[in-house]
Design goal:
Elements (H helix, E strand, L loop, with lengths): L2 H9 L4 H22 L2 H18 L8 H20 L7 H11 L11 H16 L3 H11 L5 H8 L3 H21 L3
Helix pairs in contact: 1-2, 2-3, 2-4, 3-4, 7-9, 8-9
Length: about 180
């Protein structure tokens, strides 16, 4: 079933929308959650919660890219579960590394918790990523949106782990300079 048809089922409040979403995107959503949580049970729980959140979001929201819409919901649920499960002191896992790497791009003096600034910051990062060369942008998104490991990314592109880490490091430096120019 096409995504537009599934979205229309949500708009008509037809429970088959969830069934079709699961059939088409359950394994995709699971991999998004499991890249962050590295725990099968927690990942499955996030995927199950994704369907409820999607049901509650559509309508009024009408996603242009349903797959990414589901990924964003799953990712947010996984981050929330990760935050709850791993207090700052405990650390661990790939997500800890991802957040630590990105923290180098944002000035400590910025009040990124403020919703308006956070939204503007997100839009600036989105514009930055759109202007990257395709491969560099894909590597950046796979690491910092989908929280894939360096090994997974390197394997996907036929790169060494070191080459992938260098690419990400250079991209983070570019991002930092870009954000400084943007006033962050």
């Amino acid at each position: 079933m096409e995504d537009t048809e599934i979205i229309n089922l949500y708009f008509t409040r037809n429970p088959d929308a969830i069934t079709h979403s699961k059939e088409k995107y359950e394994s995709y959503c699971f991999s998004v959650a499991n890249n962050i949580l590295e725990n099968i049970q927690d990942s499955e729980e996030c995927v199950n919660d994704t369907w409820l959140h999607t049901w509650n979001e559509i309508p009024p929201c009408k996603p242009k890219y349903f797959r990414l819409f589901l990924a964003k919901i799953t990712r947010n649920l996984a981050f929330n579960k990760w935050n709850h499960r791993y207090a700052k002191k405990r650390g661990g896992g790939e997500i800890h590394l991802v957040l630590e790497e990105l923290s180098q791009c944002i000035s400590k003096e910025s009040d990124v918790l403020d919703q308006v600034i956070a939204k503007e910051l997100g839009e600036s990062i989105e514009a930055f990523v759109r202007n990257l060369p395709t491969k560099e942008g894909d590597i950046f998104i796979r690491r910092y949106f989908f929280s894939e490991s360096i090994s997974q990314i390197a394997s996907s592109y036929g790169l060494t782990k070191n080459n992938t880490m260098v690419t990400l490091s250079r991209t983070r430096k570019k991002l930092k300079l870009y954000l400084i120019q943007e006033g962050y």
